[in-house]
Amino acid sequence: MPFIKIPELSVHYEQMGQGKVPIVFVHGNFASWRWWRSVFSHLPEHYTAYLPDLRGCGDTDHTANGYDIEQLATDLHLFITALNLPSLHLVGHSLGGAVVQQFTLDHPECVITLTLVAPAPAEGMSHLKQEHNSFITGLLESFEFHALLHSLHLNRSILLRIFKQMTPSLNHQTADFIALVDDAARMPPEAIVGFMNSLTTWNVQNRLNELSLPVLIIWGEHDTLVKRDALERMILALQHAQLVILPMVGHVPQLEQPDSFNQIIFEFIKSNGTSLQNQYSFSTLRTATLPKPSWWQWIKQKFSAS
């Protein structure tokens, strides 16, 4: 369980491989390095993987503030600098997708390829507030909600419901899945509220044309959190990018379809992005059904009824 000290906090990370080329994997919200465990058995030789816990997550320090995307990108740069890593491949999931986008815009010279997995779109997620009007704002600021967050380690049904909805094709009875829930339950309320607030205000869509490196975006067709049209707008704005859609997958492709996921990302990384093509893209046709409620809607119903 290695740690490295950067200004303001001690960062926990995991490391595997002995190669000269680094790949840094950045996890999402309610998460930790464990969300990347599926890459361990697939890591190609010549690479070393670094999997840090973000501020307030996993075993990295829980601070009173600093839970906006810009600060998380600064933390990532300090982490990479402290390890004296050369140019690297960068992979981010969900909230971590926003962090690595911000990092790459701030330090494009450091990144060889960028892989975004079910990422927070570059235009942010302001729809979380727009769709629910004043509910989200009031919820994030309410004393009762903060009290609820403090007791999440006791009221695990909320976390279990959220994770099951985000990963519909995953086996939810395994020890690995329970470990993911345990990590989420340790997050401080300051991190939960800070991450959510930042996701609804952060927006770098108009800067995407600054990026000339290869970008791969992976999205599951059953993802109820990230909107496909927002990712398509990213593809149109980027100079060299591809959107890969995985069928029968929700918000966590790396856990739901690890074999396909790892084949796709490591082919992309090993080719330094030159393998971008359509062979892994899938068009998705479905019969008309009522949309599944998002986990935000479920929290709203749960909280409003209490």
Automatic annotation (TrEMBL):
AB hydrolase-1 domain: residues covered: 22-258
UniProt keyword annotations, A-Z: Hydrolase
Pfam annotation, one family: Abhydrolase_1
Presence of the UniProt keyword Hydrolase in the record: yes
InterPro entries: AB_hydrolase_1, AB_hydrolase_fold, AB_hydrolase_sf
Transmembrane segments: none
UniProt GO MF annotations: hydrolase activity
SUPFAM superfamilies (alphabetical): alpha/beta-Hydrolases
Protein name per its UniProtKB record: Alpha/beta fold hydrolase
Organism of this sequence: Beggiatoa leptomitoformis
